[in-house]
Design a protein that fits this description.
By secondary structure, the protein is α/β, with parallel strands linked by helices. Helices cover 43% and strands 15% of the residues.
């Protein structure tokens, strides 16, 4: 099954990978600016998010991404990835480094990361709320945890809608379908230039991951956004879009084709 996706524009390919709080709609405000900057822009919904149904057999997000790119005939791609999407992007780039021309990771997760106290406490509370049937409480926990203090109410409502939909789809599952165990990826295999962005108001886990990655990847740099929480592309979309366009123009040869 091919992930539900959108494609627009022409030029070097850029794939947008969403956070597990959201779906591909989180990139609405980057979509047209990236296309108009001269890129073929692709965005997808992971399984159980947005319009992509839950899996019915063992699966892996990274092989889903590979299948999507192969279906579209895209040989090389720049990855713009947020949170959980960042973890998927790192694993994809480690397993198929020749397929990735650059990576911009926004508050990424990381393969193999063990949750610290803050993230573990969040996960425990979310589980408690969902087990008690308090879907609204679990949604509000996510909105309060993942968005920075400057986020406006319309943006908070958009995140509520995406997170609520994901919970509704995932809680409706008859049974859990396991992820395929592909083994731990070697991040040292990544060759693409990488910009790692963190938010000063994010949980400690993600700030620490962003600080660590430049020491683990051969060509990475870190930038902290002092105003941001965990979802900066939603919190200040114009500022983050400009940051992404600058990075892509710096790292992606304009003559490169999909």
């Amino acid at each position: 099954m091919t992930l539900c996706h959108d494609v627009d524009g022409s030029g070097p390919a850029v794939l947008l990978l969403h956070s597990s709080v959201c779906d591909r709609r989180m990139w609405d405000q980057q979509w047209l600016p990236l296309r108009d900057a001269g890129y073929q822009v692709i965005r997808c919904d992971f399984r159980g998010f947005g319009e992509t149904p839950l899996p019915d057999q063992p699966y892996s997000e990274v092989t889903d991404v590979l299948d999507l790119l192969d279906t579209l005939g895209v040989r090389r791609v720049a990855l713009v990835a947020a949170s959980f999407g960042g973890r998927v992007g790192l694993e994809f780039a480690a397993r198929w480094p020749d397929r990735v021309s650059g990576m911009a990771l926004l508050c990424p997760g990381m393969p193999g990361h063990q949750p610290g106290p803050e993230l573990a406490a969040f996960g425990k509370r979310e589980d408690e709320l969902l087990e008690a049937g308090d879907l609204a409480g679990a949604v509000e926990l996510n909105v309060a945890t993942w968005l920075g203090p400057e986020t406006d109410e319309p943006t908070r409502e958009r995140v509520r809608d995406m997170q609520r939909h994901a919970f509704q789809v995932q809680l409706a599952a008859v049974e859990d379908v396991p992820r395929l165990d592909l083994g731990e990826p070697d991040l040292g295999e990544i060759t693409a230039p990488c910009l790692v962005v963190s938010g000063r108001h994010d949980l400690a886990d993600f700030r620490q991951i962003a600080e660590r990655l430049p020491g683990l990847l051969p060509n990475a740099r870190h930038r902290e956004l002092p105003w941001a929480g965990h979802l900066p592309s939603l919190e200040r979309p114009a500022e983050v879009t400009a940051l992404l366009v600058d990075f892509l123009r710096e790292t992606l040869p304009r003559h490169e084709t999909p």
